[in-house]
Design brief:
31 helices; flat; 24% strand; alpha+beta; RNA-binding; seven-stranded mixed beta sheet
RNA sequence: GCCCAGGUGGUGAAAUUGGUAUACACGCAUCCUUGAGGUGGAUGUGGCUUCGGCUGUGGAGGUUCAAGUCCUCUCCUGGGCACCA
């Protein structure tokens, strides 16, 4: 027989009406009795439709807000709309309506949807960023930053989206394409407004450390800011006044710098042109790079470049003259726009050097320790330059190796390098001496020298070998007879590549040899011991780094990857930049008495052929400027990036209607920083970083009380379509929350979202219709319980179950692990269902902890059970320790579970063992012998260790 | 390439932080209920099994009385950054 289901539509509508009539969720910010708690979610963009992601964010925050209120906190839980922006403008053009009308219509619709969720946001504090009473303060704050020198207008290379007809911030370009529309961006030189976030790079980085955020979120910001410690070094230019300043993180490799590269846009290129001998080639290359888009430049990672003929720079360490190149792999916007190139120890320089056939000088030796023959205490320490000679026979594709007779070794041909002897000569001499093969041809040197550390048993000394590996090709089998001594030492074995890899050759640096032999040459970026580095040779490269900088007359500096924030946009639907220009073209902020600096209404959305903002066509704006400031004054036509609007919105929630301040200082002092900020992962490096910067800048102006805006940050996971794909109209897998609410009720939908998985984890959760049905089924069971409710005593067991559930729900909700909180509620319901009569007090206690999750149904049932007021005003029960009288623990024998016993948590070991041995399976596993050892953790585990010698296995 | 996060049943996921692996739910199977369904309920549900057990948290080692959890190596997936010197 079908059980009775509750009528969610009727109940939810009625309960919601009661909530809004009683203004249950309007917060009194001035209250002094309760603890304030500021719970924030990212204010939505008024696209016109609330999607399931909004539901996920709003509903779960609402669960927490309700819990906090029941716990007696004064909770600020506001909502607003991030309503400027391009999609609205485009939609307005498409539908031929005013963007403001479009926006307000969408907001109205979304308000209704948010209400249908039963969300307890405080509507009296709603902010709309496109309304003049809001953007007036965006402008006021911008002017403040301008006065501080933090907003600056300058000519700069910028990213331009030809489709959206506007410039983009660095952050809005992904893979060379416009983040919004996917069009390939162009590069333009334009005079634009920037906010100087780079000034705050260090603080944005340092202040991240103590924040209790997830490490991956912090890491993403750290990577975005991109700090790197290095040095500025000066390379003077032979015969000229100027010098080239380079930035490098590897000044330790300075002695290996064999050329210098400037970015093609580097201003010095212009200056040097008069002494350049290949002017045409240089100019052509510069032109080519200028035409290439950023994308083309980064897509084609083949190195290109041109030498500045006749220009030589001087390596400050070696005093050697080195050539100077321009190449587009060096970025004008990072560091000094110039690098010293060390092909031996930098991959990009290596590639370029290969292409240009430039010399490679190795200055750092990687170190390897032979652990089979470690240095021995008290033995003499010797250093030796050696060669490792590898002879390859192409006819059989084998390599010549030596099997040692007196030692269990296999090696290549090796030997010392004599005074004044070339390594190749030395290697060839050793091949003849040790193997007799005379006709070998030099093939190549395998990378730079390596240092190996081992005990040379045959000589009785500790060794550091500085080895250079030389590869030869065997020409023919001509072989001289070997001396007696040589014959006594080893036998010759030709080994295949696989054998070389697997036979355990003795060389400590074997990994490097194999890599260089079979995979080819690469730059050696490991740390190690300096060579060819003058007085620094022999020291560790890291340890000597700062000394080398001092020696070369450079200085240590820190560089950041982050760029200044470009905030100018050439579109209509944004906050007008509150700047006017005097007849000389000097920028002035619009004085506060003229704010809001209204968006003109005589022009509308759209683009202009000249790429200027639509505002450039406004007579009203021009007349306004003339009227207020005088003849010859002109307006700024650009509008602000919407991320400026959203950088401070949360402060406005405190005094959304204030006409005297962007936010009330006393209230800010009380309510900021935000206690918990929930949002999407996509905002980690953009909105979150921008708003931290903005807030810090305001803090420096003493406009906000703290240095950081958000105490906690929670990034929610993503809700996928039923097919496991990202929800998108393209896949036709978009879940319409309104339909779900109509069919299953708001309580079932929010409960399902809570149950789907942990909220603050980077997970993706497919939306399952069956899952919503599951939570609905649970709520129907809750509803059916009312038939069993009666007057009865609460048993000790039931009391314990209530405590257990309460503790779990409390703790897990606080941590946003709503999935396990819901599971605890389900377990409790199962226990209640098992009772013949559900005591009314127990049922009401259950409703109190169910309330945040199923606010409508629980409130309905609460009132039905004669509860006072709303269940959402019922105090949340304290977390108390559960009284446990007996506990079932596992019994292991030798670590394997063999049974379980139920004992008091304080049971003595003796009693526990006695109980355990009464279990047949346990006693059998023990072989009827008393355990040799007992590990007993009361209330947790009993592990009996059988005597292996007696028990026998 | 570098930096994170994560691999547990058919699925979403739990696991008191070293102590009974798979809570809770979905799905599935069998049975009951209803005239039938996208109804309601009961039971079962990691794998293998000679029904005694054995085995099992991506893989291989290790530490420990005891490992999903700690250590070493390795494979795979997702995310971020990427010619940043």
């Amino acid at each position: 027989m079908a059980k009775e289901k509750y009528n969610h539509q009727e109940i939810e509508k009625r309960v919601q009406a009661a909530w809004s009539a009683s203004e249950l969720h309007t917060v009194d910010l001035a209250d002094t009795e309760k603890d304030p708690y500021f719970l924030l979610f990212e204010f939505p963009y008024p696209s016109g439709d609330l999607h399931i992601g909004h539901w996920y964010a709003f509903a779960l925050c609402d669960v927490y807000a309700r819990l906090l209120r029941q716990q007696g906190k004064n909770v600020l839980f506001p909502i607003g709309f991030d309503s400027f922006g391009l999609p609205t403008e485009n939609a307005a053009i498409k539908n031929n309506v005013d963007p403001r009308e479009w926006t307000m219509k969408n907001i109205e619709r979304m308000r209704g949807q948010v209400r249908s969720m039963g969300t307890t946001v405080d509507w009296s504090r709603e902010v709309i960023s496109s309304e003049p009473e809001y953007y007036r303060w965006t402008q006021w704050l911008f002017a403040k930053l301008f006065e501080q020198g933090l907003a600056e207008r300058r000519l700069a290379p910028v990213k331009w989206c030809p489709k959206d007809q506007t410039v983009l911030a660095h952050e809005q370009v992904l893979d060379g394409k416009c983040e919004r529309c996917g069009t390939e961006v162009e590069e333009k030189h334009l005079t634009q407004w920037f906010l100087k976030i780079t000034k705050y790079a260090k603080r944005l980085l340092e202040d991240l450390d103590p924040l209790p955020w997830r490490e991956d979120i912090k890491d993403a910001q750290r990577a975005w800011i991109g700090e790197s410690r290095g040095a500025k070094l000066n390379f003077s230019i032979s015969g000229r006044e100027e010098s080239i300043e380079v930035f490098t993180t590897r000044p330790d490799t300075l002695f290996g710098a064999t050329y210098v590269v400037l970015a093609p846009e580097h201003p010095l290129v212009e200056t040097l042109l008069d002494s350049v001998t290949n002017k045409d080639a240089v100019l052509t290359y510069r032109k080519q790079t200028a035409q290439k888009s950023e994308r083309e430049r980064s897509e084609n990672k083949q190195k290109t470049g041109v030498v500045l003929g006749g220009v030589m720079a001087v390596n400050p360490a070696t005093k050697e003259e080195v050539p100077v190149y321009i190449a587009d792999y060096v970025l004008a916007t990072y560091g000094t726009g110039a690098v010293m190139a060390v092909p031996a120890h930098d991959e990009r320089d290596f590639e370029f050097a290969q292409k240009m056939q430039l010399p490679i000088r190795h200055v750092v030796m990687p170190e390897r320790i032979d652990h089979r023959n470690p240095h021995q205490e008290g033995k003499e320490l010797t250093r030796r330059s050696i060669v490792i000679a590898i002879v390859h026979d192409s006819r059989t594709d084998t390599y010549l190796t030596l099997n040692w007779k007196e030692q269990p070794w296999i090696t290549f041909v090796t030997g010392g390098v004599e005074e004044n002897e070339d390594v190749v000569e030395a290697a060839k001499r050793e091949v003849v001496e040790e193997t007799g093969y005379t006709d070998v041809a030099f093939s190549r040197i395998l990378g730079g020298p390596t240092q190996s550390e081992f005990y040379a048993a045959h000589k009785g000394v500790n060794r550091y070998n500085h080895a250079t590996t030389v590869l030869f090709e065997l020409l023919n089998d001509t072989q001289e007879p070997l001396t007696e001594e040589e014959n006594a030492l080893h036998t010759l074995v030709w080994r295949t590549a696989d054998e070389i890899r697997n036979d355990g050759l003795q060389h400590a640096e074997m990994d490097l040899i194999l890599e260089r032999l079979f995979k080819g040459e690469t730059a050696m970026t490991e740390d190690g011991v300096l060579v060819n580095s003058g007085e620094f040779s022999g020291r560790g490269n890291r340890e000597a780094l700062e000394d080398i900088v001092a020696f070369a007359g450079g200085e240590m500096v820190t560089n950041y990857r982050i760029r200044d924030w470009l905030v100018s946009r050439q579109r209509y639907w944004g906050c007008p930049i509150p700047i006017v220009y005097d007849p000389e073209g000097v920028a002035h902020p619009v004085p506060p008495e003229h704010l809001p600096w209204l968006l003109p209404t005589d022009v509308t959305s759209g683009t202009r052929a000249d790429g200027q903002s639509p505002l450039a066509g406004s007579d009203e704006l021009r007349d306004r400027v003339t009227r207020i400031f005088g003849e010859g004054w002109t307006p700024e036509y650009d509008t602000l990036d919407v991320f400026v609007d959203s950088s401070w919105y949360f402060t406005r929630y405190l005094s959304p209607n204030s006409e005297t301040a962007f936010s009330d200082p006393a209230l800010m002092k009380k309510w900021l920083p935000v206690d918990r900020y929930s949002g999407g992962a996509e905002h980690t490096t953009v909105h979150l970083l921008y708003s931290r910067f903005f807030y810090k800048a305001l803090h420096d102006l003493a406009l906000v009380p703290t240095a950081e805006p958000y105490v906690e940050r929670f990034n929610r996971g993503l809700i996928l379509g039923t097919d496991g794909q990202k929800m998108s109209k393209r896949w036709g897998n978009v879940v319409n929350p309104d339909e779900m609410v109509e069919k299953f009720g708001a309580d079932a939908v929010r409960m399902y979202l809570a149950f789907i998985g942990p909220y603050n984890e980077p997970g993706n959760y497919p939306w399952k219709l069956d899952g919503v049905q599951g939570t609905r089924k649970f709520l129907d069971r809750v509803y059916q319980l009312r038939e069993k409710v009666g007057e009865a005593e609460v048993s000790a067991e039931l009391a314990r179950a209530l405590v257990r559930a309460t503790n779990k729900v409390t703790e897990d909700t606080e941590r946003f692990k709503m999935n396990t909180a819901v599971a605890a509620l389900m377990v409790l319901v199962r226990e209640l269902e098992g009772l013949a009569v559900v005591p009314r007090t127990a049922f009401k206690q259950f409703l109190v902890i169910l309330a945040p999750y199923a606010p409508h149904l629980s409130d309905h049932l609460w009132q039905e059970q004669g509860g006072a007021g709303s269940v959402h005003q019922a105090p949340w029960p304290e977390v108390v320790e559960e009284v446990v009288t007996e506990v079932t623990i596992g019994v292991q024998v030798n670590g394997k579970k063999r049974g379980e016993i139920t004992v008091s948590p304080e049971a003595e070991e003796e009693a526990a063992v006695l109980a355990a041995r009464a279990v047949p399976a346990v006693e059998a596993a023990l072989g009827n012998q008393p355990p040799a050892r007992v590990i007993y953790v009361p209330g947790r585990i009993l592990n009996l260790v059988a005597d292996n010698t007696a028990g026998g296995v």
